[in-house]
Design goal:
- The protein has 1 helix and 5 strands, in the order ββββαβ.
- The radius of gyration is 16 Å and the shape is globular.
- With 88 residues, it is mainly beta.
- Strands 1, 2, 3, 4 and 5 form a 5-stranded antiparallel β-sheet that branches.
- The longest helix is centred in the middle third of the chain and has 10 residues, at 54-63.
- It has one helix at 54-63; strands at residues 7-13, 18-21, 27-37, 44-53, 69-74.
- The protein starts with 6 loop residues before the first strand and ends in a 14-residue tail after the last strand.
- 11% of the residues lie in helices and 43% in strands.
Length: 88
């Protein structure tokens, strides 16, 4: 059976995009995107951490700022880490 990893998000930027250049010389941007669900008192906001590379990154860093609406299509990549606290 085939599988699909595709996501569509429509929301607003929570902060201005942070741009960088990768070691390979490609553009990269990070930003937060807020999506809402529900209505009235039951409305909830979900925050998504988004990373874009190359041409989409160039477009976002040039034309998009905090509060702007944005439509995104892409794939989900989950990262896991173990937070270890230092003992005092």
């Amino acid at each position: 059976m085939a599988s699909v990893n595709k996501v569509i998000l429509i929301g607003r930027l929570g902060r201005d995009p942070e741009s960088r250049v990768t070691a390979q010389g490609d553009s990269m941007v990070n930003f937060s995107l807020a999506t809402d669900s529900g209505r009235g008192e039951k409305k909830t906001t979900t925050w998504h951490r988004v990373v874009c590379y190359k041409q989409p990154a160039e477009f976002i860093k040039t034309y998009v700022k905090k509060g702007d609406p944005l439509y995104l299509e892409g794939t989900i990549i989950n990262r896991e880490w173990d937070r270890r606290c230092a003992s005092f």
